[in-house]
Amino acid sequence: MGRSQETFSKKEKEKKKLKKRQDKEQKKEDRIANSDKGKGLDEMLAYVDDNGNITSTPPDPKNKKVIKQEDIKIGVSKQEDVDPADLIRKGTVAFFNDSKGYGFIQDHVTQERVFVHQNGLVDKIKENDKVTFEVEMGHKGPNAVNVKLA
Q: 101-127, pLDDT tens digit by residue?
């Protein structure tokens, strides 16, 4: 008769399968033991206190704050009309190419560079000129318009 074909690796695989099966059974029993089924509604509720912490005790009705419906504001508050004089900025022409018709103006207050095209010019400008201008949003970002020599 022949020898048994059960090798060491086969025995190890069987042991692993058995261990896995036992672990799965144990997890199943733990889930059943710790289940929330059958608990009352009061045991499952959680409350939030004044500081935003979760607690199991309900809030005191004596400390309830009354809020009028008219005081609740939803959305963005209406912006006030901007004074046209505030829109006018002052700056210096940092670069201007006459042949191509565009350049940049350095704002005195924000120190940002704003693109300017010859279509937005009122007076003819060149580099290092002091100018006043307004800013409008274009396709690629802010553009200087109504550019005048200061």
A: 999 999 999 999 999 999 999 999 999
d(CA 29, CA 27): 5
- As a whole number of angstroms, the longest Cα–Cα distance in the chain is 113
Contact call for residues 88 and 133 (beta carbons, < 8 A): yes
Tell me the pLDDT band of 82, cut-offs 50, 70 and 90. low
Residue in the structure block whose two tokens are 């009705």: 61
Res 47 pLDDT > 80: yes
Encoded tokens for 60:
């005191």
Mean confidence (pLDDT) of the chain: 87
Q: How far is the CA of 28 from the CAs of 14, 35, 64, 126, in angstroms?
A: 21, 11, 44, 82
* CA–CA gap between residue 87 and residue 95 (Å, rounded): 22
CB 147 within 8 A of CB 123: yes
123, 134 in Cβ contact below 8 A? no
CB 116 within 8 A of CB 92: no
